[in-house]
Amino acid sequence: MSLHLETDVLIIGGGLAGCWAAVAAARAGAEVVLADKGYCGTSGVTATAGPNHWWVPPDPEKRAQAVRDRDARAFGLADPRWMARIIDTTWRVLPTLADYYRHSVTAGGVPHYQSLRGPEYLRALRRYAETLGVRILDHSPALELLLHVDGSVAGARGLRRQGEGGDWTVRAAGVVVATGGCAFLSKLLGSRTNTGDGHLMAAEAGARLSGMEFSTYHTVAERHSTQTRSASYAFADYFDADGRQIDTGGSPDVTVPLARALLAGPVYATLARMPADLRAILPQIQPAILLPFQRQGIDPFTQRFPITLHGEGTVRGTGGLRLVDDDCQTDVPGLYAAGDAATRELIAGATSGGGAQNSAWAVSSGTWSGQAAARLARAQGRRAHQGVEAAGGAGLRPDAGALKDAAALTRHLTDGVRAEMLPYDKILFRRGPVLAQSLATLDSLWRDARDRLAPGSDPTARVRAREAAALVACARWTTATALARGETRGLHRREDAPSLSPDLAHRLLSGGLDTVWVRADDPTQRSPAQRSPTQRSPAQRSPAQRSPAQRSPAQRSPAQRSNVA
Amino acid sequence: MIELVVDDRCTRCDTCIQVCPTNVFERGAGGLPLIARQEDCQTCFLCELYCQADALYVAPNCDEPVAVDAASIVASGLLGQFRRHSGWHEWEGDPAHANLHWRMGELFARARAG
């Protein structure tokens, strides 16, 4: 059974940003459909975490100081105006969750709004969205966007992995991509579904990316565990296999010394410095943190246990889809990006926004994009009966003869991406020649994905094939941008260029599918999305869309169009 | 990764099938959830949190499957621990499991203070 829906606003992704976008659009009076790859309520990295939010009271001096302090650590790539905007929006929006989340009340009777437990937070957001009438499609991954002939977004198409199954098509006036960052299938907690699907779908529609080189954040966890909950590790001491303590330089950022040590051999940690009173209440602060220890019979407060670092890719990196206006619109008219799918350079520059800033960003960018999509629907209607084209390519419609064994090719692609994007020496200690070699390998994987990957009809295989294509695409933008930024700035470290270059004090845009490009972001350049859709001639569409190789003949056929219209 | 669905505890409510963010389960014969796609499990423990029958066990190893002995897991008292510590369902309102997440900042502050 295929499902066809028409709505005002479609949200792709039901994590933190997607839920806030759905809530904002519904509160603005729009009819909203939210399609989640998994289950809205447990999906996304926030559902497994416990986010704080950037929380500054509405005192002009305090807020100005908070922005100044943060901007000073952004390596010149952030925008103080956007920081002030998220502080203000988060302060106003977050307390609206109070009917659905039991906030702790601290001394003085003030509800503690800013710090929430992830599973409860996302469960509350789901209830909030449902109460407002949002239609949630669980286990319904989006596979591709639909475009009007003028290049503006017209909806999306995907499949349903549970219930009746079949494909879904949703026509909408505005679409919000809230698919999260891309963690390159590291074992970062909660990131299995964060494979960059939204980045690829948006890029196929003509969107550009920004800041993809700032994707090197890592988090410590017990060796075979996903528990990248780092708070307790503030008390950690680290040791090598001979029991020698590893010098972490006294800085809270232990990533570089630990990665160097892990490249040399096993590393062990103990949390012995955590005071007894905090140990006693730790399960009430973070109920999941001790599960892996207790299930292995490890006492982390008295014993030394092996650790690892899990890469976060663009999750707590800052790169993502480039935004062209205050509504979080991408280069594609009517397509908005929220949360970790969008670039966070605006608020964090070259340094990770960490949990609190990124959560405030998810709340705010979700709210703005949801409101903007609702306004767009009101202004121009759904345009649901105009013909559309499907924008998807790699992993959906192979250009050349499809390989019989799609599962093997999918594995080959994902293994290939992991081999380039997860080793510490390739990501944390970047070098030009190694990056160039990685890029050549990834380009070859892209050609395989584009030409040969046809997953057939099995739902799981279809999702995995599309994930593989997205992973390869994100890996290429990341690697190409890291190669182009021949300096060390914030999260981006180049062993062969260890200092800041004044010539590179600007953001780097990237994009392209068959040919990946990187160029300096010129803020004076007029973006395509600032024109009205009707003014946008085919020649002004993105290079991806102009390239004849990009689109298979099948995609352009009338039959194809009638399928999706 | 998810390793165990305890047959005689499971109430066939389908909740784990529904809430798993990576669609690991399938409804099996008689309604017992099958671990159909273990390789997609992201070891997030959220299925355990939602399972009011305490019938699920996620082993902490996210890299490879491990053999588990159902009888000793059931005897260990580990089943339902995450749900209890989180104060969900029948534990809601129990002061012993009150949500102290707001004290997270204290961990960092006291670690910095030495």
From TrEMBL, chain A:
Cofactors that this protein relies on: FAD
Domain FAD-dependent oxidoreductase 2 FAD-binding: 8-82, 101-355
Nucleotide-binding as UniProt keyword: no
Region entry Disordered, spans: 520-565
Keyword Transferase: no
Compositional bias per record (Polar residues), positions renumbered to this chain: 525-565
GO molecular function: oxidoreductase activity
Pfam families in alphabetical order: FAD_binding_2, Succ_DH_flav_C
Assigned keywords, A-Z: Flavoprotein, Oxidoreductase
Source organism superkingdom: Bacteria
Domain Fumarate reductase/succinate dehydrogenase flavoprotein-like C-terminal: 428-499
PANTHER family, sorted: SUCCINATE DEHYDROGENASE 2 FLAVOPROTEIN SUBUNIT, SUCCINATE DEHYDROGENASE [UBIQUINONE] FLAVOPROTEIN SUBUNIT, MITOCHONDRIAL
Name of the protein this chain belongs to: Oxidoreductase
From TrEMBL, chain B:
Domain 4Fe-4S ferredoxin-type: 1-30, 31-61
Keyword Iron-sulfur included in the entry's annotation: yes
Pfam families for this protein: Fer4_9
PROSITE patterns recorded: 4FE4S_FER_1, 4FE4S_FER_2
SUPFAM superfamilies attached to this UniProt entry: 4Fe-4S ferredoxins
Organism this protein belongs to: Nitrospirillum viridazoti CBAmc
Keyword field: 4Fe-4S, Iron, Iron-sulfur, Metal-binding
Keyword 4Fe-4S: yes
GO terms for MF: 4 iron, 4 sulfur cluster binding; metal ion binding
InterPro entries referenced in this protein's UniProt entry, alphabetically: 4Fe4S_Fe-S-bd (IPR017896), 4Fe4S_Fe_S_CS (IPR017900), Fe-S_Ferredoxin (IPR050572)
Protein name (Swiss-Prot/TrEMBL): Ferredoxin
Domain of life: Bacteria
